[in-house]
Known about the structure:
The complex is a heterodimer of chains A (139) and B (477). With 139 residues, chain A is α+β, with helices and mostly antiparallel strands. Chain A has a single domain (4-138), classed as Archease, Possible Chaperone, Chain: A, domain 1 (3-Layer(bab) Sandwich), CATH 3.55.10. Chain A has helices at residues 22-38, 59-77, and strands at 4-8, 13-19, 48-55, 79-89, 93-102, 116-117, 123-127, 130-138. In chain A, strand 4 (79-89) and strand 5 form a beta hairpin. By secondary structure, chain B is of the alpha+beta class. Chain B has one domain (6-476): tRNA-splicing ligase RtcB. Chain B is 34% helix and 26% strand. Chain B is built from 16 helices and 19 strands. Chain B has helices at 33-41, 44-52, 110-113, 117-127, 142-151, 153-158, 164-168, 186-192, 217-223, 239-256, 277-312, 388-393, 408-414, 417-426, 436-441, 450-459; strands at 6-9, 12-15, 27-30, 57-68, 75-82, 87-89, 100-109, 205-214, 229-236, 271-273, 318-324, 326-335, 338-347, 350-351, 370-373, 381-386, 397-398, 430-433, 463-476. In chain B, strands 7, 8, 9, 11, 15, 16, 18 and 19 form an eight-stranded mixed β-sheet that branches. Chain B has a seven-stranded mixed β-sheet with strand order 1-2-3-4-5-13-12, sandwiched between helices. A two-stranded antiparallel sheet of chain B has the order 6-10. The longest helix of chain B is centred in the middle third of the chain and has 36 residues, at 277-312. Chain B is globular. The chains are: A alpha+beta (139), B alpha+beta (477). At the A-B interface, helix 2 and strand 6 of A face helix 8, helix 10, helix 13 and helix 15 of B.
Amino acid sequence: MEYIRVLEHPSDIGIEVHGLTLEELFRNAAYGMYCIMFGGPYESNREYVIQVSLKSTDPERLLVQWLNELLYYFETSGFIFIDASFEELSGTSLKSRIFGAPLLHANLEVCVGIKAVTYHRLLLERRNELWYAQVYFDV
Amino acid sequence: MTTTLKQIAPYRYLVPKNFKKGMLIEGLIFASDELIGAIQNDETIQQVANVAALPGMVGYSLAMPDAHQGYGFAIGGVAAADVEKGVVSAGGVGFDINCGVRLLSTDFTIDELRPYLDNLLNELFRAIPCGTGKGGRLTITQNVLDEVLQRGAQWAVENRFGTPEDIDHTEEHGCMIHAQASTVSKRAKERGAPQLGTLGSGNHFIEIQYVADIYDQSVANVFGIQLNQICVMIHSGSRGLGHQVCSDYLETMNEAMSKYNIHVDDRQLACVPIQSKEGQAYIAAMAASANFAFANRQIMTHWIRESFHSVLKRGTLQIVYDVAHNIAKFETHQVHGKAHKVLVHRKGATRAFPANTPGVPMDYLTVGQPVLVPGSMGTASYVLVGTQRAMEETFGSTCHGAGRAMSRHAAKKQESADRLIAELKAKGILVRGATKSGLVEEKPEAYKNVDQVVEVMHNAGIARKVARLLPLGVIKG
């Protein structure tokens, strides 16, 4: 899990993630957010598929929207993210299929309840060969 | 970090306009020598300055002694926007809209209750769903949820979750009148509907406390508080519904800002003119979320009463008061000697109105509004009373709690749940928690010293101490 690092915040928590491509970065950010929730790396099967389409004004906002979308599915149906394929991912739009399973089918306990994704110190940028992002969550 | 903070009076530190380019008003931070260091060690002052740069803010951009770095606004921040020229910021209210505190007094003494404490905690833990994403005991339709959003605690009382007297002791009578259920998204309603009547997670709790000290007997008498009396404190908010409303309107505001020629350094500060259609829609959705939170605390109050009756076979539990500490409200305050209609953003700050002020319950009108300040798990909580000085200096506002001093991650690294539970038990405090991890994050050392925080407000004359309560049993979400 060297591509995900936990960031400290006085009241909440954040992650720093990187990926070779924007797709990998978005996938890692999603997995990182769920790792915070479950207290570390986790596994899940891929019995559910959900289509996600998002439009935004810039990549940073798109990342926040992407993670908020996953949180919505987690809270309303207990959806645990495990992977995503991207039909489209530009700086301002995204079409994806997300794979996972309901929490009820997994032997996982929520350690940290993430309630929202924030814009606080939000970063998404290219650093040499890697895409890099930093995002904080309200817990 | 060194700053150009200037102490201008006891407990008052000025953030001058030249601290940061673009500040339109000055900042003012309430703190003691002990607390100002922590405030300087994170981004609190920067965030106070950022808020001071928002259009139409009046008076000072304020921070209370429990202030710490938040998102956009500092937690413990207060800022008032001119109703005609100012802005409303979703981040200025926060994600958990109308996160607040309710205190119930009982007719039990500590000696009468203690033999039943273990059973009572078990019953409360069974009766009140808590933890992340936990659904509640209620099944409500979309139409009923809309009624809750419109009418708040008043809906709960009409549906047998309380008494009319409960409403009289709830801020805004448990119902913010600007609410419009139609401005709350379908997603927010989907998240909220199963969570009505649930405690939540994070720092939310229900605590059985006893009154350990009385500082102002005459005011305590008016509030119905006596030495050694058992009280119950509830700390909870608008759950996933409020979070979704905040996220939705952060997006709306971020998109709309350029239309109004507003630029902010931090997107979490996204804001729009109060009089704009986006501003009006947010205010209506925020009020609806606040009503959800009032109803939520009212429903839990009902189940707490049932739990007492189930375990102790008797008991009268009355609401001392219910305060919102993440909210924006239209109020009239004196600014530079003139009455000014403003929208007061309180993000992690409590209203603290004095005697003879509209909005204070009739039976408290002679003394002022109760202010409820919860401490960290295992430490004291306080009942204060609002003062005229708060009206003059802080838009009628004061602190809201101890304020975090340590990250959740750091707290977890330093503590084990079993050791924490044992330590609290040794102090006579029993704990039930939805998760061990959640317990450890809330360990007392992760917070500032609430006694010091309250002392600042008391000594500064902003809110006076009335009573100090100590915990006996804690349910952590």
